[in-house]
Specification:
single chain, 6-stranded antiparallel beta sheet, Aminopeptidase, 35% helix, alpha+beta, 2 domains, 9-stranded mixed beta sheet, 13 helices, Alpha-Beta Plaits
């Protein structure tokens, strides 16, 4: 394996700068979507790109694009991207690992005098985390046209209560211009992208358990969520003097609903790819001496099967109505679910990532992604996409201040032979390959994204 020490120093230096957003009082990384902190992180990485002579621009949604010229500039570019925003009290490496890996791979080629086959564009997507405005992957959804001008005014920030449009304008962007370009479908020229690859920490324990360094993502699971939750309305009564047969206990009814629903999900999971949970279940205004009058439930399902995604809302409705009837509750509210599409990764890119890993002597395995990513948005817009997962310790914990990039807290992730370094080596290898053998159009050299 070639020496990647210079590339690893670049990665380490970038992360040293990103440490400015560690906020002890808030319990981790504080880098909200469309914030000054997110902009600062993007600027830090852009300075490294500038030092390598890359062309840097920003689209009207605020996504940064840093282009390194390839041998054949008429071909569609290889885009490598991810995000730098973080969930509240988040970890250091979720999202950023993908951007930094792309920069480190280019640094290796730059210092060793190699040139990519086609232009390579390192993209930082804004607002990937849903924690701040209630919507995930905003930057990629803006360029694919999956969000509208109405969303800019409707989405409100979790902490400030101000609109997304306000926060975008505060960051120096022009939300009115974005709204006009969304109407016209001119946010970004998607046909310029030949292939998109996203490197990401796994955010789970599968690679650790299998003792594999890297993961080749086959598909990104879609989801069924109930963000407005499901409500069971009972009747408040004294918990000691009310006969059991006369009670309309919303909490017990909700518990039975969850038990029956989970049993159905388990049956589905026995035959298909499926994971499920109930992130929230609570009694409204609980009292130890009162029969619960209202209980709220929030189930969630993730699967690569569109068939199951279409079926789960009907199955949930069946369980809901049956529970209301069984416990003779006055009523309840079954809110509309939000359904996110699954996305299949391009098989040729899966093969290319696996071949590079094998050629370089790195262990790998194929697996689905349980979390959503910008790659899923681009894939469903027709762009060939691939994802490469990095094994990381602490049982793959993520969205948590304890998130690490090495195998244990003492492991240096920026050393030769680390799993992160292996991912960088695979990216560098792919950059020197011709990935555009898919009959896509040729273009004039492309440096700047119209804003």
């Amino acid at each position: 394996m070639p020496d990647f020490s210079t590339a690893m120093k670049t990665a380490s230096d970038i992360y040293r700068g990103l440490e400015a957003h560690w906020n002890e009082a808030k319990g981790g990384i504080y880098r909200p979507s469309y914030s000054a902190e997110e902009t600062q992180a993007m600027d830090l990485i852009a300075r490294e790109a500038h030092a390598m002579g890359m062309k840097i621009s920003m689209d009207v949604a605020g996504n940064a694009h840093m282009i390194y010229p390839g041998k054949d500039r008429t071909r569609p570019m290889l885009m490598i991207g991810s995000h730098v925003d973080a969930v509240p009290a988040g970890g250091r490496y979720d999202g950023t690992a993908g951007v930094v890996a792309g920069m480190a791979a280019l640094k290796h080629l730059h210092e060793s005098g190699q040139q990519p086959e086609q232009d390579v564009c390192i993209t930082i997507f804004r607002g990937e985390e849903s924690a701040w405005f209630g919507m995930s992957c905003m930057g990629s959804k803006f360029i694919t046209g999956d969000l509208s001008r109405e969303f800019l005014k409707a989405a409100k920030h979790k902490e400030t209560g101000k609109t997304l449009a306000h926060h975008m304008d505060f960051c120096g962007l022009d939300s009115r211009d974005l709204a006009d370009k969304l109407d016209a479908g001119k946010v970004f020229p998607l046909k310029r992208i030949g292939n998109y690859i996203e490197v990401h920490i796994e955010q789970g324990p599968a690679l650790l358990e299998a003792q594999k360094s890297l993961g080749i993502v086959t598909a990104i699971r879609g989801h069924v969520r109930y963000p407005d939750k499901i409500t069971f309305n009972g009747e408040a009564a004294h918990s000691g003097s009310t006969p059991q047969a006369m009670r309309k206990d919303a909490a017990i009814a909700a518990s039975v609903f969850v038990s029956d629903w989970v049993r159905s999900m388990k049956d589905l999971a026995d035959h298909d790819d499926l994971v499920y949970s109930v992130p929230d279940i609570h009694v409204v205004n609980p009292s130890s001496t009162t029969v619960p009058a209202q209980c709220v439930v929030q189930p969630e399902v993730r699967t690569t099967s569109q068939r199951i995604l279409d079926y789960v809302p009907e199955l949930t409705k069946t369980h809901f109505l049956r529970t209301i009837n069984e416990f003779k509750l006055p009523d309840g509210e079954l809110t509309s679910p939000v359904i996110g599409k699954p996305a299949t990764m391009e098989i040729s890119l899966q093969d290319a990532l696996e071949s590079s890993a094998n050629r370089l002597g790195f262990s790998s395995m194929r697996l689905p992604s349980g979390a959503g990513h910008d790659a899923g948005i681009l894939a469903n817009a027709g762009i060939p996409c691939g994802m490469l997962f990095i094994r990381h310790g602490q049982n793959g914990i993520s969205h948590n201040a304890e998130e690490i990039l090495g195998l244990d807290p003492q492991d240096n992730p920026f050393r030769q032979g680390s799993d992160f370094c292996n991912a960088v080596a695979v990216l560098a290898d792919l950059m020197t390959q011709d990935l555009n053998r898919n009959g896509r159009m040729f273009f004039k050299p492309f440096d700047f994204v119209p804003a």
